[in-house]
Each structure stands twice: as structure tokens, then as C-alpha cells.
What does this fold into?
Amino acid sequence: MLVFVLKLRYFFQAMPNGVLAAIVVVNMFPFLEKFMDIPTLWRQDKYHLVIWLVTFAAVLCLGLDVGLAISMGFTFFVITVRSHRMKMVVLGQIPNMNIYRSLSVYKAVRGSKNPKCSLSL
It folds into this structure.
């Protein structure tokens, strides 16, 4: 694409700036449609939304190379934080099965009467 544009630069010099701006906007439209995905990303995974927003802001403000480097560092930081967070749940046994599930999520599980015998993950 770059070679094509460089070879035909004489044709682009004669075009009005409005036409060139329209070409840029039309090519950027799929990228700008990503803003419509923000509510979906918020519901699915808030960490992915934050990574996307940081990447977008860093690339927009600091340029492509520095922005992507900041994005990579931030992504590694988020992955590290997520991998070190513990989630404690109390497990209960599904009746007549040897399967254990969280008491707060599954209502059909049977918890232990003795709190010291509760299993935690």
C-alpha cells in the first residue's frame, strides 16, 4: 500500500483536502466502530476493556511504537495481578454425586453442617 501511494503521490497532490479526509475517515470507520463494543466488553470482562482503553489512549497520545510498548507492559501487569488474586469459595457436594460446587452459585448443593469440615478452594 505504501509503495502504491508513493508511486501515485502526484495524483494525490492535486486532490482537495476534503477528498483526502474522506478517504481517511472511510478507512478508519471499522476502527471507530470498536467504540460500540465497549458495553459488551464491560459485561464480558472488565480487564479486557481496561487493556483496550489503555492501548487506545497510549497509541493515540504517544504514537504507535511507544503506545504499543506501554500496552504490552500494562497487559503483563494486569495478567500478573489477575494470576495472583485468590478467590475463596465454600464448596458443597451435589447430592448422590462425587462432585463439589460453590455454595453461593449452586443452590442444589449440600453443605456440611460442621463449618470446620467445609472445603475451600
